[in-house]
Amino acid sequence: MSSAVIQLLVLAGIAIFLILRLRSVLGTREGFEKPPLSVNESRDDRSGGQPDFEVIEGGVDRDITDHAPEGSPTAQALAQMKRVEPGFSVSEFLQGARGAYEMILMAFERGDIEQVAPFLDADVHEAFAEVLKHRAEQGLSVEATFIGVSELALVAASFDPASDTGEMTVRFLGELTSIVRNADGEVVEGSDNKIKRQRDIWTFARRMGTGDPNWQLVATDE
């Protein structure tokens, strides 16, 4: 065997030995090893320790901003209500207000407000009762059919932290047919085939965080 071949075999053997030795060392991780930098840490290092973006927690509550301008007194009051009662939903309240409007309005039109008395503040109940009493003294009766609500909007909201009481003022545009008859049964007002549009602004109130979901009508306006 020539000397050149012997030298190549020796060099090849040394190379194999070194590769196996390096693999045995590099293939294991012993002792402390610094973990790789996260994306944010890498950015901090490149910018002198200051992050190049701001993390915003939370975000806009669409359940509030869909019904009140962001930062307005109404929006702030709604946010306070949600802090006291996290499950409170403005959208769900308005849907409930729509049903309450129909129920209370029709009870009043038909002269039977006692069925909705639990949903009326004492002052509102008294005011309704006076109107119905005056109507009865005149011998008038009303026949009404509710058609629907063509407009529904939150006008304002307020919150009293001392009592945890929230108030919601809502504007309704109700549609109904209404006929007023005198004691002789004659029609003195309205028509059963003409839709009457009635605009009302009602204020509802409730103590938040008590577990009682029922709001009371505390004020009415037009």
Number of strands: 4
Report the top-level CATH class of the largest domain: Alpha Beta
Here the CATH topology of the largest domain equals: Nuclear Transport Factor 2, Chain: A
How far from one another are the termini?
116 Å
Shape: elongated
Write the layout of secondary structure elements.
Blueprint: H1 3-26, H2 39-46, H3 62-65, H4 73-84, H5 90-109, H6 122-137, E1 141-160, E2 165-181, E3 187-207, E4 216-221
Antiparallel strand pairs: 1-2, 2-3, 3-4
Structure commentary:
The chain has a four-stranded antiparallel beta sheet with strand order 1-2-3-4. Mean pLDDT is 82; it is low at 17-57. Helix content is 38%, strand content 29%. With 222 residues, the protein is of the alpha+beta class.
Summarize the structure.
The protein has six helices and four strands, in the order ααααααββββ. It is α+β, with helices and mostly antiparallel strands and 222 residues long.
